[in-house]
Protein backbone atom coordinates (compact mmCIF):
# COMPACT_ATOMS: atom_id res chain seq x y z
CA UNK A 1 0.00 0.00 0.00
CA UNK A 2 -1.37 -0.20 -1.36
CA UNK A 3 -0.08 -1.21 -2.70
CA UNK A 4 -1.94 -3.33 -5.02
CA UNK A 5 -3.05 -0.75 -2.81
CA UNK A 6 -5.29 2.12 -3.87
CA UNK A 7 -7.63 3.99 -6.10
CA UNK A 8 -6.37 3.51 -9.70
CA UNK A 9 -3.86 0.84 -8.58
CA UNK A 10 -0.82 2.97 -8.16
CA UNK A 11 -1.48 6.14 -10.05
CA UNK A 12 1.13 7.27 -7.60
CA UNK A 13 1.50 10.71 -9.08
CA UNK A 14 -2.07 11.15 -7.83
CA UNK A 15 -1.15 10.73 -4.17
CA UNK A 16 0.22 13.75 -2.40
CA UNK A 17 -0.34 15.81 0.74
CA UNK A 18 -2.52 18.89 0.60
CA UNK A 19 -0.39 21.94 0.00
CA UNK A 20 0.49 24.20 2.90
CA UNK A 21 0.78 27.89 2.03
CA UNK A 22 3.60 28.26 4.58
CA UNK A 23 7.16 27.62 3.36
CA UNK A 24 8.28 24.04 3.93
CA UNK A 25 10.91 23.82 6.66
CA UNK A 26 12.30 20.48 7.80
CA UNK A 27 13.25 20.14 11.44
CA UNK A 28 16.86 19.44 12.46
CA UNK A 29 18.18 15.94 13.08
CA UNK A 30 17.08 14.40 16.41
CA UNK A 31 20.57 14.60 17.93
CA UNK A 32 23.97 16.13 17.37
CA UNK A 33 24.94 13.04 15.41
CA UNK A 34 23.10 11.98 12.26
CA UNK A 35 20.22 9.54 12.72
CA UNK A 36 20.87 5.97 11.66
CA UNK A 37 17.71 5.84 9.57
CA UNK A 38 15.45 8.35 7.81
CA UNK A 39 11.98 6.98 7.02
CA UNK A 40 9.82 8.61 4.34
CA UNK A 41 6.15 7.57 4.28
CA UNK A 42 3.70 9.88 2.54
CA UNK A 43 0.33 8.26 3.15
CA UNK A 44 -1.71 7.12 6.16
CA UNK A 45 -1.22 3.44 5.37
CA UNK A 46 2.52 3.85 4.78
CA UNK A 47 2.81 5.79 8.04
CA UNK A 48 1.18 2.90 9.92
CA UNK A 49 3.26 0.20 8.23
CA UNK A 50 6.47 2.14 8.82
CA UNK A 51 5.52 2.72 12.46
CA UNK A 52 5.16 -1.01 13.05
CA UNK A 53 8.56 -1.58 11.48
CA UNK A 54 10.15 1.14 13.65
CA UNK A 55 8.64 -0.38 16.81
CA UNK A 56 10.18 -3.71 15.85
CA UNK A 57 13.54 -2.06 15.23
CA UNK A 58 13.45 -0.45 18.67
CA UNK A 59 13.29 -3.95 20.19
CA UNK A 60 16.70 -4.76 18.68
CA UNK A 61 19.80 -5.18 20.82
CA UNK A 62 21.21 -2.03 19.19
CA UNK A 63 18.11 0.00 18.24
CA UNK A 64 18.83 2.59 15.53
CA UNK A 65 17.97 6.26 15.90
CA UNK A 66 15.16 7.15 13.50
CA UNK A 67 13.97 10.40 11.94
CA UNK A 68 10.97 10.53 9.64
CA UNK A 69 8.93 12.40 7.10
CA UNK A 70 5.63 10.67 7.77
CA UNK A 71 2.73 11.03 10.14
CA UNK A 72 1.51 10.62 13.73
CA UNK A 73 1.95 6.85 13.79
CA UNK A 74 5.68 7.18 13.16
CA UNK A 75 5.95 9.84 15.86
CA UNK A 76 4.18 7.57 18.36
CA UNK A 77 6.49 4.71 17.38
CA UNK A 78 9.49 6.73 18.52
CA UNK A 79 10.70 8.40 15.32
CA UNK A 80 11.53 12.11 15.33
CA UNK A 81 8.94 13.53 12.92
CA UNK A 82 10.54 16.16 10.69
CA UNK A 83 7.49 16.93 8.55
CA UNK A 84 3.95 15.52 8.49
CA UNK A 85 3.24 14.21 5.00
CA UNK A 86 -0.07 12.62 5.99
CA UNK A 87 -1.96 15.60 7.40
CA UNK A 88 -4.18 15.51 4.33
CA UNK A 89 -4.13 14.18 0.78
CA UNK A 90 -5.25 14.97 -2.73
CA UNK A 91 -6.12 12.45 -5.39
CA UNK A 92 -6.13 12.71 -9.16
CA UNK A 93 -3.65 13.79 -11.80
CA UNK A 94 -5.39 17.13 -12.25
CA UNK A 95 -5.24 17.95 -8.53
CA UNK A 96 -1.56 17.03 -8.29
CA UNK A 97 -0.60 19.26 -11.20
CA UNK A 98 -2.13 22.23 -9.38
CA UNK A 99 0.37 21.76 -6.56
CA UNK A 100 3.53 21.09 -8.53
CA UNK A 101 5.51 23.85 -6.77
CA UNK A 102 4.92 22.31 -3.35
CA UNK A 103 6.12 18.88 -4.45
CA UNK A 104 9.22 20.34 -6.08
CA UNK A 105 10.05 22.26 -2.89
CA UNK A 106 9.50 19.19 -0.75
CA UNK A 107 11.83 17.15 -2.94
CA UNK A 108 14.56 19.82 -2.97
CA UNK A 109 14.51 20.30 0.80
CA UNK A 110 14.52 16.57 1.48
CA UNK A 111 17.60 16.10 -0.71
CA UNK A 112 19.36 18.93 1.12
CA UNK A 113 18.43 17.51 4.53
CA UNK A 114 19.88 14.10 3.63
CA UNK A 115 23.01 15.72 2.18
CA UNK A 116 23.48 17.69 5.39
CA UNK A 117 22.79 14.96 7.97
CA UNK A 118 23.88 11.81 6.08
CA UNK A 119 21.85 9.03 7.79
CA UNK A 120 23.25 5.54 7.36
CA UNK A 121 20.17 4.59 5.34
CA UNK A 122 16.94 6.04 3.99
CA UNK A 123 13.88 3.80 4.11
CA UNK A 124 11.44 4.76 1.35
CA UNK A 125 7.97 3.43 2.21
CA UNK A 126 5.62 3.08 -0.77
CA UNK A 127 4.76 6.59 -2.13
CA UNK A 128 6.69 5.99 -5.39
CA UNK A 129 5.71 9.21 -7.16
CA UNK A 130 7.88 11.07 -4.65
CA UNK A 131 10.23 8.41 -3.33
CA UNK A 132 11.54 7.16 -6.67
CA UNK A 133 12.27 10.73 -7.76
CA UNK A 134 14.11 11.28 -4.49
CA UNK A 135 16.19 8.11 -5.05
CA UNK A 136 17.19 9.33 -8.51
CA UNK A 137 18.19 12.77 -7.19
CA UNK A 138 20.29 11.26 -4.39
CA UNK A 139 22.15 9.12 -6.91
CA UNK A 140 22.69 12.09 -9.24
CA UNK A 141 24.07 14.18 -6.36
CA UNK A 142 26.48 11.41 -5.34
CA UNK A 143 24.82 11.07 -1.93
CA UNK A 144 23.45 7.53 -2.16
CA UNK A 145 25.49 4.34 -2.38
CA UNK A 146 24.50 3.86 -6.01
CA UNK A 147 25.83 7.35 -6.71
CA UNK A 148 29.15 6.74 -4.96
CA UNK A 149 28.08 8.03 -1.55
CA UNK A 150 27.51 6.28 1.78
CA UNK A 151 23.73 6.53 2.26
CA UNK A 152 21.92 3.27 1.53
CA UNK A 153 18.50 3.48 -0.11
CA UNK A 154 16.04 0.79 1.01
CA UNK A 155 12.53 0.54 -0.37
CA UNK A 156 9.69 -1.09 1.57
CA UNK A 157 6.39 -2.00 -0.17
CA UNK A 158 6.96 -2.33 -3.89
CA UNK A 159 5.16 -0.15 -6.41
CA UNK A 160 2.73 -2.26 -8.40
CA UNK A 161 4.94 -2.61 -11.45
CA UNK A 162 2.85 -5.59 -12.55
CA UNK A 163 -0.06 -3.18 -13.01
CA UNK A 164 1.48 0.12 -14.02
CA UNK A 165 4.85 1.41 -15.31
CA UNK A 166 6.56 -1.97 -15.43
CA UNK A 167 9.78 -0.57 -16.90
CA UNK A 168 10.55 1.49 -13.83
CA UNK A 169 11.91 -1.69 -12.25
CA UNK A 170 15.13 -0.95 -14.18
CA UNK A 171 15.28 2.57 -12.77
CA UNK A 172 14.73 1.14 -9.30
CA UNK A 173 17.60 -1.30 -9.80
CA UNK A 174 19.80 1.63 -10.86
CA UNK A 175 18.95 3.79 -7.81
CA UNK A 176 18.10 1.44 -4.91
CA UNK A 177 20.19 -0.90 -2.78
CA UNK A 178 17.40 -3.30 -1.78
CA UNK A 179 13.62 -3.77 -1.96
CA UNK A 180 11.25 -5.54 0.46
CA UNK A 181 7.82 -6.60 -0.82
CA UNK A 182 4.60 -7.44 1.03
CA UNK A 183 3.24 -9.82 -1.60
CA UNK A 184 5.00 -13.11 -2.29
CA UNK A 185 4.62 -12.95 -6.08
CA UNK A 186 6.41 -9.59 -6.41
CA UNK A 187 10.10 -10.66 -6.24
CA UNK A 188 9.61 -12.54 -9.51
CA UNK A 189 8.63 -9.24 -11.16
CA UNK A 190 12.23 -8.05 -10.65
CA UNK A 191 13.97 -11.26 -11.74
CA UNK A 192 15.43 -9.60 -14.85
CA UNK A 193 17.10 -6.82 -12.82
CA UNK A 194 20.09 -6.66 -10.48
CA UNK A 195 17.99 -5.34 -7.57
CA UNK A 196 17.97 -7.59 -4.45
CA UNK A 197 14.28 -8.19 -3.65
CA UNK A 198 12.86 -10.05 -0.65
CA UNK A 199 9.32 -10.94 0.43
CA UNK A 200 8.95 -10.00 4.11
CA UNK A 201 5.24 -10.68 4.66
CA UNK A 202 2.27 -8.36 4.83
CA UNK A 203 2.14 -6.06 7.88
CA UNK A 204 -1.52 -6.96 8.46
CA UNK A 205 -0.37 -10.45 9.44
CA UNK A 206 2.23 -9.27 11.97
CA UNK A 207 1.80 -10.77 15.48
CA UNK A 208 1.18 -7.36 17.08
CA UNK A 209 -1.19 -6.18 14.37
CA UNK A 210 -4.52 -4.93 15.75
CA UNK A 211 -7.18 -5.03 13.02
CA UNK A 212 -9.38 -1.95 12.84
CA UNK A 213 -12.49 -3.96 11.88
CA UNK A 214 -14.13 -7.29 12.69
CA UNK A 215 -17.18 -9.16 11.47
CA UNK A 216 -20.35 -9.23 13.59
CA UNK A 217 -23.67 -10.17 11.95
CA UNK A 218 -25.56 -8.10 14.54
CA UNK A 219 -23.54 -4.91 13.98
CA UNK A 220 -24.44 -1.96 11.71
CA UNK A 221 -23.07 -1.81 8.18
CA UNK A 222 -19.82 0.06 7.60
CA UNK A 223 -19.12 2.79 5.03
CA UNK A 224 -15.47 3.46 4.18
CA UNK A 225 -15.00 6.39 1.79
CA UNK A 226 -11.20 6.51 2.03
CA UNK A 227 -8.53 8.86 3.36
CA UNK A 228 -8.06 11.37 0.53
CA UNK A 229 -10.21 14.45 0.54
CA UNK A 230 -11.14 14.62 -3.16
CA UNK A 231 -11.84 10.89 -3.32
CA UNK A 232 -14.05 11.09 -0.22
CA UNK A 233 -16.01 13.97 -1.73
CA UNK A 234 -16.75 11.88 -4.81
CA UNK A 235 -17.38 8.51 -3.18
CA UNK A 236 -19.13 9.28 0.09
CA UNK A 237 -22.42 10.58 -1.42
CA UNK A 238 -22.70 7.30 -3.34
CA UNK A 239 -22.11 5.28 -0.18
CA UNK A 240 -24.81 7.25 1.63
CA UNK A 241 -27.23 6.78 -1.25
CA UNK A 242 -26.54 3.05 -1.32
CA UNK A 243 -27.14 2.75 2.41
CA UNK A 244 -30.39 4.72 2.14
CA UNK A 245 -31.58 2.44 -0.67
CA UNK A 246 -30.77 -0.67 1.35
CA UNK A 247 -33.46 -0.01 3.95
CA UNK A 248 -31.08 -1.08 6.73
CA UNK A 249 -31.38 0.60 10.11
CA UNK A 250 -27.94 2.02 10.85
CA UNK A 251 -24.54 2.67 9.30
CA UNK A 252 -21.21 3.76 10.72
CA UNK A 253 -18.45 5.63 8.90
CA UNK A 254 -14.84 5.15 9.91
CA UNK A 255 -12.67 8.16 9.08
CA UNK A 256 -8.85 8.49 9.40
CA UNK A 257 -8.42 12.15 10.33
CA UNK A 258 -10.14 15.36 11.50
CA UNK A 259 -9.91 16.72 7.96
CA UNK A 260 -11.88 13.81 6.53
CA UNK A 261 -14.36 14.08 9.41
CA UNK A 262 -15.11 17.68 8.40
CA UNK A 263 -15.65 16.57 4.80
CA UNK A 264 -18.06 13.87 5.95
CA UNK A 265 -20.03 16.22 8.19
CA UNK A 266 -20.50 18.60 5.28
CA UNK A 267 -22.66 15.91 3.65
CA UNK A 268 -25.47 16.58 6.17
CA UNK A 269 -25.61 13.09 7.63
CA UNK A 270 -28.93 11.53 8.63
CA UNK A 271 -29.37 10.42 12.23
CA UNK A 272 -28.96 6.78 11.18
CA UNK A 273 -25.33 7.37 10.11
CA UNK A 274 -22.70 7.66 12.87
CA UNK A 275 -19.13 8.90 12.39
CA UNK A 276 -16.45 6.84 14.14
CA UNK A 277 -12.87 8.13 14.63
CA UNK A 278 -9.92 5.74 14.30
CA UNK A 279 -8.33 4.12 17.30
CA UNK A 280 -10.62 1.25 18.19
CA UNK A 281 -11.86 -1.94 16.56
CA UNK A 282 -15.16 -1.51 14.68
CA UNK A 283 -17.65 -4.35 14.27
CA UNK A 284 -19.59 -4.51 11.00
CA UNK A 285 -22.09 -6.83 9.34
CA UNK A 286 -21.31 -5.62 5.80
CA UNK A 287 -19.26 -2.92 4.10
CA UNK A 288 -19.19 -0.54 1.17
CA UNK A 289 -15.58 0.53 0.80
CA UNK A 290 -13.23 2.49 -1.42
CA UNK A 291 -10.56 0.45 -3.17
CA UNK A 292 -7.71 1.32 -0.83
CA UNK A 293 -6.04 -0.34 2.12
CA UNK A 294 -9.20 -0.59 4.22
CA UNK A 295 -10.74 -2.93 1.64
CA UNK A 296 -8.02 -5.46 2.51
CA UNK A 297 -8.65 -4.95 6.23
CA UNK A 298 -12.31 -5.85 5.64
CA UNK A 299 -11.49 -8.85 3.50
CA UNK A 300 -9.10 -10.23 6.15
CA UNK A 301 -11.82 -9.74 8.77
CA UNK A 302 -14.30 -11.77 6.72
CA UNK A 303 -16.76 -8.87 6.30
CA UNK A 304 -18.91 -9.31 3.17
CA UNK A 305 -19.15 -6.22 1.01
CA UNK A 306 -18.41 -4.37 -2.20
CA UNK A 307 -15.95 -1.83 -3.56
CA UNK A 308 -17.01 1.61 -4.79
CA UNK A 309 -14.78 3.78 -6.94
CA UNK A 310 -15.29 7.21 -8.52
CA UNK A 311 -12.53 9.47 -9.83
CA UNK A 312 -12.04 12.66 -11.75
CA UNK A 313 -13.05 11.81 -15.33
CA UNK A 314 -9.54 12.46 -16.67
CA UNK A 315 -7.90 10.34 -13.98
CA UNK A 316 -10.32 7.51 -14.70
CA UNK A 317 -9.78 7.63 -18.46
CA UNK A 318 -6.00 7.64 -18.01
CA UNK A 319 -6.27 4.68 -15.67
CA UNK A 320 -8.39 2.71 -18.11
CA UNK A 321 -5.76 3.28 -20.79
CA UNK A 322 -2.69 2.55 -18.69
CA UNK A 323 -3.51 -0.03 -16.03
CA UNK A 324 -2.96 -3.69 -16.80
CA UNK A 325 -5.03 -5.27 -14.01
CA UNK A 326 -8.56 -6.68 -14.17
CA UNK A 327 -9.68 -5.40 -10.73
CA UNK A 328 -9.24 -2.42 -8.42
CA UNK A 329 -9.81 -4.24 -5.11
CA UNK A 330 -6.75 -5.66 -3.38
CA UNK A 331 -8.40 -8.95 -2.37
CA UNK A 332 -9.78 -9.39 -5.90
CA UNK A 333 -6.32 -8.91 -7.38
CA UNK A 334 -4.60 -11.25 -4.94
CA UNK A 335 -7.12 -14.04 -5.49
CA UNK A 336 -7.68 -13.24 -9.18
CA UNK A 337 -11.44 -13.25 -8.82
CA UNK A 338 -14.12 -10.74 -7.90
CA UNK A 339 -14.71 -11.78 -4.30
CA UNK A 340 -15.73 -8.16 -3.66
CA UNK A 341 -18.03 -6.86 -6.44
CA UNK A 342 -16.74 -3.60 -7.90
CA UNK A 343 -19.02 -0.64 -8.67
CA UNK A 344 -17.01 1.85 -10.70
CA UNK A 345 -17.89 5.39 -11.86
CA UNK A 346 -21.53 5.41 -13.10
CA UNK A 347 -22.17 1.87 -11.87
CA UNK A 348 -21.90 3.17 -8.30
CA UNK A 349 -25.62 4.00 -8.13
CA UNK A 350 -27.96 3.89 -5.16
CA UNK A 351 -30.17 0.94 -6.20
CA UNK A 352 -27.43 -1.64 -6.96
CA UNK A 353 -25.39 -0.60 -3.93
CA UNK A 354 -28.44 -0.90 -1.69
CA UNK A 355 -29.21 -4.34 -3.08
CA UNK A 356 -25.62 -5.39 -2.51
CA UNK A 357 -25.75 -4.35 1.16
CA UNK A 358 -28.97 -6.31 1.70
CA UNK A 359 -27.44 -9.38 0.08
CA UNK A 360 -24.33 -9.13 2.27
CA UNK A 361 -26.39 -9.05 5.47
CA UNK A 362 -28.93 -11.73 4.55
CA UNK A 363 -27.38 -14.22 2.11
CA UNK A 364 -25.65 -17.11 3.97
CA UNK A 365 -23.61 -17.92 0.89
CA UNK A 366 -22.13 -14.41 0.75
CA UNK A 367 -21.28 -14.56 4.45
CA UNK A 368 -19.59 -17.97 4.13
CA UNK A 369 -17.65 -16.85 1.07
CA UNK A 370 -16.33 -13.81 2.96
CA UNK A 371 -15.00 -16.06 5.74
CA UNK A 372 -13.33 -18.37 3.20
CA UNK A 373 -11.81 -15.38 1.43
CA UNK A 374 -10.20 -14.25 4.69
CA UNK A 375 -8.61 -17.67 5.21
CA UNK A 376 -7.22 -17.76 1.67
CA UNK A 377 -5.75 -14.28 1.99
CA UNK A 378 -4.01 -15.06 5.28
CA UNK A 379 -2.33 -18.07 3.73
CA UNK A 380 -0.70 -16.03 0.97
CA UNK A 381 0.18 -12.91 3.01
CA UNK A 382 1.91 -14.49 6.01
CA UNK A 383 5.58 -13.60 6.57
CA UNK A 384 8.11 -16.41 6.06
CA UNK A 385 9.94 -15.25 9.24
CA UNK A 386 8.94 -13.38 12.38
CA UNK A 387 9.54 -9.60 12.26
CA UNK A 388 10.56 -10.00 8.63
CA UNK A 389 10.53 -6.32 7.62
CA UNK A 390 12.45 -5.09 10.68
CA UNK A 391 15.05 -7.84 10.36
CA UNK A 392 15.50 -6.91 6.70
CA UNK A 393 16.19 -3.25 7.59
CA UNK A 394 18.48 -4.15 10.50
CA UNK A 395 20.49 -6.48 8.31
CA UNK A 396 21.16 -3.69 5.82
CA UNK A 397 22.01 -1.20 8.58
CA UNK A 398 24.56 -3.63 10.03
CA UNK A 399 26.38 -4.23 6.75
Give me the secondary-structure topology.
Elements: E1 15-17, E2 37-41, H1 44-57, E3 66-70, H2 72-76, E4 80-84, E5 89-91, H3 93-98, H4 100-117, E6 121-125, H5 128-140, E7 152-156, H6 168-175, E8 178-181, E9 197-199, E10 213-215, E11 221-224, H7 229-246, E12 251-254, H8 258-265, E13 273-276, E14 282-284, E15 287-289, H9 293-300, E16 305-309, H10 313-322, H11 330-335, E17 342-344, H12 350-362, H13 364-381, H14 388-398
Parallel strand pairs: 2-3, 2-6, 3-4, 6-7, 7-8, 8-9, 10-14, 11-12, 11-15, 12-13, 15-16, 16-17
Antiparallel strand pairs: 1-5
Largest sheet, spatial ordering of strands: 4-3-2-6-7-8-9
Distance between the amino and carboxyl termini: 28 Å
Counted beta strands: 17
The residue ranges in which pLDDT falls below 50 over 5 or more consecutive positions are: 1-24, 88-94
CATH names the topology of the largest domain as Rossmann fold
Tell me what you see in this structure.
- The protein is α/β, with parallel strands linked by helices.
- The protein has two domains: 12-206 and 383-398, Rossmann fold (3-Layer(aba) Sandwich); 213-381, Glycogen Phosphorylase B (Rossmann fold), CATH 3.40.50.
- Helices cover 39% and strands 17% of the residues.
- The chain has 14 helices and 17 strands.
- It has helices at 44-57, 72-76, 93-98, 100-117, 128-140, 168-175, 229-246, 258-265, 293-300, 313-322, 330-335, 350-362, 364-381, 388-398; strands at residues 15-17, 37-41, 66-70, 80-84, 89-91, 121-125, 152-156, 178-181, 197-199, 213-215, 221-224, 251-254, 273-276, 282-284, 287-289, 305-309, 342-344.
- The strands form four sheets. Strands 4-3-2-6-7-8-9 form a seven-stranded parallel β-sheet, sandwiched between helices. Strands 13-12-11-15-16-17 form a six-stranded parallel β-sheet, sandwiched between helices. Strands 1-5 form a two-stranded antiparallel ribbon.
- α7 links the parallel β11 (221-224) and β12.
- α7 (229-246) crosses α12.
- It is globular and about 65 Å long.
- Mean pLDDT is 86; it is low at 1-24 and 88-94.
Amino acid sequence: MSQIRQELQDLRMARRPVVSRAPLTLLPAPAAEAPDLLVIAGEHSGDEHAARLVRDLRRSVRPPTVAALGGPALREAGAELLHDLTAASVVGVVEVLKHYRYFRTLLDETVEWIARHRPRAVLLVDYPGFNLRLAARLRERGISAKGGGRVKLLYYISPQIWAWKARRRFTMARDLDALATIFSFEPACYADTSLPVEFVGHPFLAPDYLPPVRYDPAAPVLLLPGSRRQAVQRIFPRLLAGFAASGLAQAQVLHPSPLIESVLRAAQLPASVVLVPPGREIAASAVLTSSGTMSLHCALAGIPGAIVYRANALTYLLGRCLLRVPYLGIANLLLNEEVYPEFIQGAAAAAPLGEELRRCTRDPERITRARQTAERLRAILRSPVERGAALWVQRHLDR
